[in-house]
Amino acid sequence: MSFEIIEQQFGELTELVIQESTTGNRCVIIPELGGIVRQLSLRKGITLFSLLKTPPTPDSLLADTKSASELLFPFASRIPDGKYKFLGKEYQLVKNETGNLNAIHGLVRKQSFNIEEQDIQADRASVKLSYSINNPEGYPFAVDFSVLYTLHADGRFVLTYEAINQGNEPAPAMFGWHPYFVLGNEQADAWKINIPSDEIVDFDNNQIPVGRKPFLVEKPTKIYQKAFDNCFVVNAASDSVTTELISENQDITLRIKQETGEGKFNYLVVYTPPARDCVAIEPLTANVDSFNSGEGLNILAHGKSISGSITLTLV
């Protein structure tokens, strides 16, 4: 196996590419645009599959409002009206969702990340990026956030995040990743999905949780004629769960494994966009609006950290 990390231009953006020459497996990362993964390609047999749908040009990527592949921290999904109460104090975040109804998807999107580390080993290569949150509007806390992307020789792609509270006050923290997945040139209606949950979050008209109800479907279930825009409580009896996106026509399955357990990824959002050409599968460490409900919310004391990993494989 022969790994390399190269730097290349994508319009005015600078990308880092981790690639392995034998298989062609590669990921393309943009540090200055929220540290996102713009491309991820993994091989099965003779075919190299591109697995992420992101805007195709630098300008469209910069203008993207759909959060393609974005890192969502210190909160993911919506906070209604941008208001939350934490440890007895009330806070007002910037209402940045389209229509200005809610705060959505955190404070590190589109921010310029620092490159902390580039590491090449015989069996893997990795890039570590970081961004420091320092008392922005509505979130008066100091938290260092980092993400480590690793491509392994056996075809695994691993995203590992870490957050450390550098301030003196306890800080609320939630993390999620927002990739849109594709499998070849097929439409999503050709696929099946295996969601590791028996419980779905019940939303109001503003996509804010109001309770839970059983999730009773065949597993795996056909995506055909189903419209997902839901949050699930995953089955966290073990230390991880795996969502499967399955193309029987192409004989491939994309596995998205998320760590579970205390402080880990115990929630999952699945979304089928109207174009039906991809599926968003978003591991979350807390429920939607956890800054208000506290469901799954991590509270970081001074100097304390939280971390977790998401692993992708193609079989």
Automatic annotation (TrEMBL):
<dbReference type="InterPro" id="IPR011013">
    <property type="entry name" value="Gal_mutarotase_sf_dom"/>
</dbReference>
<keyword id="KW-0106">Calcium</keyword>
<dbReference type="Pfam" id="PF01263">
    <property type="entry name" value="Aldose_epim"/>
</dbReference>
<dbReference type="InterPro" id="IPR014718">
    <property type="entry name" value="GH-type_carb-bd"/>
</dbReference>
<protein>
    <submittedName>
        <fullName>Aldose 1-epimerase</fullName>
    </submittedName>
</protein>
<comment type="subunit">
    <text>Monomer.</text>
</comment>
<dbReference type="InterPro" id="IPR008183">
    <property type="entry name" value="Aldose_1/G6P_1-epimerase"/>
</dbReference>
